[in-house]
Input
Amino acid sequence: MSEASAPNQPAVRIHQTHDASGTPAPAEFLEYLPPAPLLIKRGSAAMSFLAPMNPSRTDREFAYFYSDPARGSGWLELEGFSHTDSKRVQENVWMEEIERAVGKQPRRNADSHVPHALAPRYNNPWMFVALGAMPFALGAWILPRLGEQPATAVLAGVIVGVLMLLGGALAFINLRKRVPWWHRARRYAREHGAMHPDLEVWS
Output
């Protein structure tokens, strides 16, 4: 997008040092970002532009190195973002670094404006394992106790019990890959001196 876009529109100022061939080619570009999709937070939506550039943190807040085979390399900084959105970009860039080191995060969800209690970000997968175990255990408890109940109660109990068993089993299956990834990511973050908020045990 051009420099003529609204001055308060979120943008990324790119300070190129080398072009895509690796030749020194100092240049500066200002890339305005499109509006975030409905319900998706701007700080997370910005990563659709930043992620292909392989950003990594610098010693300055909200400024990042980049190395993009299509664009070249150098550093970039955010402009026109709120502090909250800038912080989430910082967190997302750090997660990109972690994923480049330990592998892509299984079933990563985009940030949304839905309240955190209704749509929690993935964090400690063992909490989700526990939540999956509860309906599984309840279903296993219900099914053996249906023998002396009326037929309609037996049918309802079988349906509820089977659904709980299936729901719990699916929770375990979906989290099977996330548990080892989460431990690798936490270990990498600790070793590099900055725990990511999404990897905190009680976040």
About this structure: The CA atoms of residues 17 and 197 lie 32 Å apart.
